[in-house]
Each structure stands twice: as structure tokens, then as C-alpha cells.
Design brief:
Helix content is 38%, strand content 29%. The protein starts with a strand and ends in a 9-residue tail after the last strand. It is built from three helices and four strands. Helix 1 packs antiparallel against helix 3. A four-stranded antiparallel beta sheet has the order 2-3-1-4. With 103 residues, it is α+β, with helices and mostly antiparallel strands. The protein has one domain: Alpha-Beta Plaits (2-Layer Sandwich).
């Protein structure tokens, strides 16, 4: 079964309040065994346009677990704070386990 990911592109509008979101989301991420693949960090846009300040990729065991985390009461509480502190585009996407180039 393929892993699944949350991919988020975030523009932080209230940095102090966003810190509260980071504190709150930890409960949901721990409960659903999420693992950060990308969490902020340096980036540069090489094509297109991305005004977002922060990019995050979280890994989950599978698609159902990724959805359950987003829909959980723990994350809903965190998301309410996130929405006060930022503008975020978040997608849940299933990973790929098929053939790779050169394989």
C-alpha cells in the first residue's frame, strides 16, 4: 500500500499566532504518526509563480491515515488557528509505488 502525503503551501499572515498552530498540530501529527519530509527550509521557484513563504510535506502510512488526521478533532482545532494565522493550500495525495526511470 503506498504512503500518502500532505503537501502545503502557506503564506503566514500572523507569525506569532502561527506558532500556536505549530504547537497545536503536534497532537494530531503524533497520533497519526506523521513524519515531516519538508518543513519550511530554503527554496526557490524555478518555474511558475509561488508567493508562498512556507512549504510543508508530511508523510503518512497510507491515504486513509492522511485523511483521518486532517479530519480528526485534534487537527480541526489546530486548523482553526492556522486559518487565523495564514493562508494555506493543502492537498492530500497518495504516493506512487510504480516503476521508476531507468528501472
Amino acid at each position: 500500500m503506498p504512503k500518502a502525503y500532505w503537501i502545503a503551501h502557506v503564506t503566514i499572515t500572523n507569525p506569532e499566532r502561527y506558532k500556536d498552530y505549530i504547537t497545536l498540530n503536534a497532537a494530531a501529527f503524533k497520533k497519526y504518526n506523521a513524519r515531516f519530509i519538508v518543513r519550511g527550509g530554503k527554496h526557490e521557484v524555478r518555474g511558475g509563480f509561488s508567493p508562498d513563504q512556507r512549504h510543508v510535506v508530511l508523510e503518512f502510512a497510507d491515504y486513509e491515515t492522511a485523511k483521518a488526521c486532517y479530519d480528526s478533532p485534534e487537527y480541526k482545532a489546530a486548523a482553526a488557528v492556522r486559518d487565523e494565522a495564514s493562508k494555506a493550500d493543502i492537498m492530500i495525495i497518495e504516493g506512487y509505488e510504480g516503476p521508476q526511470p531507468g528501472a
